[in-house]
Write a structure and sequence with these properties.
Layout lengths: L5 H25 L4 H9 L7 H20 L7 H21 L3 H7 L1 H16 L1
Helix pairs in contact: 1-3, 1-6, 3-4, 4-6
Length: about 130
């Protein structure tokens, strides 16, 4: 049977992989800082979350990307994809309540919503 949400899930899955991969790269670059630079970064206004929280968020994004790409045409996995999209939306909302940033609002909310739309389209057919 045709999966109407296939393109949504595949494209958004690729975006998750790209953005999460780039973010992990930026976290890895933090590891190359010497102690003084790292302390200065932690004291700056750009440091809001522990690095482990950011890394876990990015690993979850990679997981979502892989799941979206692999199961984009599998109608039986639509509920699972819907669940992980909702978990990501809740996580993004929590991040926004701790520290509101316009870029998080503009990018962080629509991407999981589009992922959820693709999963709902597949679920409606299943």
């Amino acid at each position: 049977m045709n999966a109407p949400g296939k393109n949504f899930l595949k494209v958004i899955g690729i975006l998750y992989l790209v953005f999460s991969g780039l973010d992990i790269l930026s976290i890895a670059l933090l590891g190359t800082m010497d102690a003084a630079q790292l302390e200065a970064y932690k004291a700056s206004k750009d440091y809001h979350y522990p690095i482990t929280v950011l890394l876990l968020n990015d690993l979850f994004g990679i997981f979502m990307g892989i799941m979206g790409i692999v199961y984009c045409s599998t109608l039986e996995k639509a509920k699972v994809l819907m669940g992980i999209a909702i978990v990501d939306l809740v996580g993004t909302a929590i991040f926004l309540t701790v520290d509101f940033q316009w870029t998080s609002l503009i990018i962080g909310i629509p991407i999981p919503i589009l992922y959820l739309i693709g999963a709902v389209k597949n679920k409606n057919v299943a």
